[in-house]
Amino acid sequence: MITYQINEKLSIEEFTDVLVRSTLGKRRPVDEPERVKKMLEYGNLILTARDNGKLVGVSRSLTDFSFCTYLSDLAVDETYQKRGIGKELIRRTKQAAPEAKLILLAAPAAIHYYPKIGMQQWEYCYFLDDVNELK
What we know:
Blueprint: E1 2-6, H1 12-22, H2 33-42, E2 45-51, E3 54-63, E4 68-76, H3 85-96, E5 101-103, H4 113-116
Parallel strand pairs: 4-5
Antiparallel strand pairs: 1-2, 2-3, 3-4
C-alpha cells in the first residue's frame, strides 16, 4: 500500500536515489550534493509516496500558496510508474495550495502524460540558463 506525506524531511541521498530511479536524475544535479541540498532546503512544498517505508515518489514544489505553485520535480521510481502515484502526488500538491495555479515544465519523456491526466498545455514558456544570454 502506498502512503503519502506532506513536507517530510528527506535526506540528500534518499532524494537523489529516487530521482535516479525515476530517470529524472538525467536532468538534475545528482552528482552535486550541495545543489541537491539547496533544492530540498528551498523547496517549500514536498510530498512523498512510500511503499512500506521505501521512497517511491516525490513531488517538490516552490509556492506562495496563493497565486502559483511551480512543481519543479515529479519523480516516480520506474518500477512503480503507471500505478497512479504521479497523478496522486500532483493532486495532493494542488490540494495543498488550492488557490494557486499549478505550473510545471514537462520532461521530454513525459510530455504526453500530463494531458492524459487532465492538465492543460500552455505554449508561452521561456527560460534563461545564463544571465550572459540576455541581449
